[in-house]
Each structure stands twice: as structure tokens, then as C-alpha cells.
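yo

u said u wanted the structure for the complex thing, so here. seqs first:
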Amino acid sequence: MLQDVALGLLTSGVAVSGTARLIVDIAMYFGLFVIVAMALNFQYGNAGIPNMGCAVQVIMGGFTVSGITVRLMFTMAEAAGTELLPWANDFDWVYNNPSNVSTMNEFIGPRMSFGVSMLLFSLAVSLILGAVIGWVIALPAIRLRATYLMIVLITMADAAQIFGRNIPAISGGTLGMFIPNIYEWYPGDRTVLSAVITLLIGIISFFLFRTMLNSPYGRLMRAIRENEVTVGSVGKNVVGIRRNILMFASGITALSGTLLAFYFSYVVEANYQRAFWTYWPWLMLILGGPGNNAGTFLGCALIVAMRRVIIVNKWFLQAVFFFPIAYFESILLGVLLIAVIMFRPNGLIPEKLLYIPGVNYTKMVNEEVKIDWRNAPKARGGSSGIGGIMSAFGGGKKEEES
Amino acid sequence: MLIPAIWVAALVFASELTLLSIGFTLTYLTAKIPNFAHGTYAGIGIYVSYTFAKIFNLSPYFGFPLAFLIGGLFSVIVYKIVIGALTNMGGGAIVLTISTLAIQIFLTGLIQIYAYWLRDRYSTYAMSFLLKQNDFKIGDFPGIFVVSLSLTIVSVISLHYMLTKTNIGVAMRATAEDPELASVLGININQIQLFSWFLTGGLACLAGAMIPLWFMSTPQSGAMIITSIMAGSLLGGFDSIYGAVVGGALVGLSEIMLTTWGQAIIGVWVGEYRPLVPMIFLVAVLLVEPDGLHGAYTKFVASETGSNLLKSIGLQKEEY
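structre next:
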């Protein structure tokens, strides 16, 4: 089984199948969802921003591929002398899409550098566009109450889908668009390569988020989550920091949409539904435990594995239910979400304290809990005690008393 | 017909949306959270109407009292099992809002299964339907036009009477203002909360029961209408019931009329963008005046010109 996966990775012409196919599928979806859920954890778990608009950012990644990368590919291929059917106006763009894409696949076949550079180009563009769309959709409500932000973001997913459905130039409208296979140069199974690349990007973004969290900025984020008035009173621009976090995480979320588009070789707005790309990542985040990347990984792995196994075995499970099993999905999602919120509010893995170089933060906080600080001696050396915490929130400001 | 069909549609939709927005605002006042499941109560009402019309072969209007009761019951169950328990556990506003989303997902799933079961059991196509032919006519007007307008006006007036004149309404307002102080004065907060959740659920389900008599309905339409409800409630200012009446009516009217005029002036393709109208309202309200019409009115009254204007037409400034 595992050998089959490895074979699909290395040898040519062997398509993975059976259980090995299921493993590849789970790995791919795990990679996609872990990027979204980690970005969500960065926003909600650590900075307290309830981003209910993940679907908008993911859809932006998909639209980047279908609307920008494909056009660039066609232009470059024509410049290189390949004959393509006309694709300038909306009708030709959609109608000639399949044959153009198959011509493009032949074009990419011997050119590995072209495929890789197109992948990198789409990732870069979707990072930027994701950040831009994060800025735009947060604009009305970022200054206001968190519930207003939720309301605006949750409606924006529908807006993005409406635009995608009605403007064929973006993603072919309701018909969808085929995407040239940028892994065409690869001799083995392209789904395996795609899963490996997705997991790789997931790992890179994990280290990115971890580094940011362990920096002074991470402490600032947690301070905003706990009490934004205090943070504002020590001279930090709370709204600006929130906006930066939202934009950064939105950019990372958009990467997942780009990778999904290349995995399917197909983009259609119906693939980027709000239920799928917002509610499920939220369930993963809350199940694993907000504010903690290990929990996000665990929640993500559990939910993705459960979902894929149910989908793959749905014909066996169908015998149990009197209604189509697709409707069972929303029941399951709702019940799981409520159950986790009610019975495990901190998730499977509780939140850990941040790492601060040179300070034993855990010990410091534990001491704070034990000691009645009104009677405690004022100077306890270095950066411990209440002053230490304040300096930690201040992001590396010098203590006044020492 | 005296009134063009499109205005009938707009007024029917506006009155339904007004009822829904009032309920949404009432929930926001008592529980301090936007209840995303509010539109789904309307979805339950849609299927109560469908059941009466197609399964029992009665006029859907006979289902209205039952719809009110069922909606209230669902709402009370939701409050008892989820919202109340989470509030006692000390869940914050964000956690409570996420739980209402979960309830919305769950209830939508239930409605879908019910629709499928109806199709399976009675061989009627319950996935997408319209009950216009089950309506009656008063003169030239379709019955739903008269019924929805009068039901909404009666509900608004009786709500106003209840909130200002009766003991339970005053208790409700006190609970919304400050639950602890209200409990000190001997108000049973728990009962008041239950009553207001029953009322909001019932109103939402009643409004939902009117929807299929004029508009195409699917199991999803309850979940889809929530954007319009939130836009109406936000336009009125989240914490004012009178604002919600005006806001719901305005959003409902403009959603249909703006789309129709846009189709006539710009082109037919504008019709596809109808769901964007409430979103534009949401964004515009948040950018211009986050407190909505109620906040704008309060500011206007507080200003010099506003109070002078009110005095000149013989009105007294309300004392808060």
C-alpha cells in the first residue's frame, strides 16, 4: 500500500489506485485544509479576529489561476509559436477552453521549468490578491465589534461566488474552466506530486506562523485577543495590527485555493462553497483547540480523514440511511460543532504559553497565580512578576523599575 | 389591477422581511448575539405551508398558527439546549455566534431531509416549489398581499403595545437593558428569555410560512434570506425594534425594486446580482453610520437643528 504511494511518486505511468489512492487524497485535502485552518488559528486563536470569510480568500486563489495564470500561459505559448484557438472574447474563452488546454498540456510536457515557474507565479499572485481581498472585505467592519466583522465576512463568500458565476472571463461562469496541467512534465502520478507540494507549502506556512507567534509580534497578538483596550492604552495601533494579521493570513489562505485548482485541473465557483471552505476549517480549529498549531493539525487530520472515508465508502453507508447521505454531512457538521463547543470548549489540545527567549514564561505565570501580588516583594529581578508581563505585552519595552 | 405585480411582490417581501428583522433584533437585544439560525426558522415555516397545501390539501393559511407554534418551539429548544447552556458556561459573543451558525447548518440539514422524505413518501416534488395556485383572491389582489401586509402591521402594533404597556413587555425591555438589575427587581429572567425566544422563533416561522405563497422556495431559501434579515436589522440599528421595522421594509422593498429597475435600465443580467443588494446595504451602513437609522435619528435629535425642528413641528424630544 505505502509502496504503491512511493511507486506513484517515483516511477512513470503507474497510477495509484485503491487504498493508496485514498491515502493520497486524504494527504492532499489535509494539506489544503491545514493551510486554511492554520491561518484561521493565527487570526482567531491567537489574535481573536473571527474571520468567517475564509471561503472568499480561497476562491481568490482559484480565480487567480483561472483568470490570470491561464491567460499568461496562453500568451507565452503563442509567443513561443504554438497554435491556439482564439480565446480573446468571453465566448471563445469558454468554448475553446478544453482544446486549448490540451494543446497547452502538450506544450508543458517537455518544459519542466515552464510548469514550475507558472506554479510559483500563481502562488505569488494569489498571495498578493488574497491579502488585497482580505483588506477590502475587512474594510467596513475591522474598526467595529467582532460580530459585525463576522456578519460582513460571512456574506462576502456568497458575493464572490455570484461574481464567479456571472462573469465568464473569471472562471468560465457556471460551466467552469479547465486548467492546463502544470505537472505534465512529471512522469509519475501527478496527484502524488500535487499532494507532496501542498504538504510542503503547509509545512513552510507552519514555520512561518510559528516564527511570527514566537516573536514580539506574537505576544502583541495575544495581548490584543485578551484585552484590546490595554494594548491600545500602551500606544499600539490595534486596528492596524488587526488589519495586518488579517491580510497576512488571507494571503496564505489563498494559496490553498491555487493548489486546489491545480489539483483538480478545473476551476468552478461551486467548488468554493462557504460551507466547505469556512465551516469545516472552523470545526477543525475548534475541535483541535484554538491558539495552538498542534491542535489544528490534529483536528484537521481527524476531520479530513473522517470526511474522506465517509465519502469514499458512501455506497456502503447509504444502506443505513433512508435519505441521501449528502444531507447527513450538514447534520454531522452542525452536531459536531455544537458538541465540541459545549463539551470541549478548549479543544483536544489546550493552548500553550508562548516562547519568549531568556524568560521562563510558564514558571513566571505559575508564580503569579500563587502569589498574592499586592503583598509580593516589588523587585524580583530580571523580567518576572507583573512588570515582566507588562513588558512582554509592550513588545520588548524596557522596564522602568529596573 | 391597481398596483403592478412587481410592487405586490416588493410589498409582500418587505412585510415578510420586516417580521424577520424584528425577530432578529429582539434576539440581539435579549441575547446580545446575531442569531444566524433566524432565517432557518423561516425555512421551517416554508415547509409547514408546503405540508398543509400539498399533503393535507388545505389552504396554507390554516397552517399559520401551527407555524407560529412550531417556530416558537424550535426556538425554545435551541435556547434551552444550546444558547442558554453556553451562556451559563460563560461563552463569549463569538463562541455563541458560531454556535448559532452550527444550529443553522443543522436545521438546514433537517429541512433537506424532511423535503426528501416528503418526496419519497408522498411522491411530491418538495425540493423547489411555489404555492401561488393555493392562494385565494380578494378582488384583484392576491390573498397573500392583503394577509402579509395586515399580519405585519398587526404584529408591529401589538408588539409596540406589548413592549410599552404590558408587564411582560416592560420586563422584557428591562432584561434586555440589564439582566442583573432586572432579576433584583423580581423579574424571572429565565422565563422572560424563554418567552422572547419563543416570540422571535414564532414570528420568523410565521413570516417563513408566507414566503412560498409568492416566491420560489427550496430547502435552502431559509438559509439564503439571512443576509437580507441582517441588512434590515443593521440598517435599523441593531438595538432598536422600531429601527428594524423601517430597516426591514426598506431593504425588502429595495431588494426587489432596485433589481427590477436595474433590469429595465441597465440590462437583464442585473437580475443575477440581486443577492448583492442587501450586502451593499450592510457595507454602506457599516461604512457610513454603524449604528444605523436609530443611531442617526438619535444623533439628529441630540443636535441643535434637530431638536429645534422637532419643537417647531410640536414634538417633544424623548428623554432616555
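Confidence is low (pLDDT under 50) at residues 379-402 of chain A. DSSP finds 18 helices and two strands in chain A.
cya
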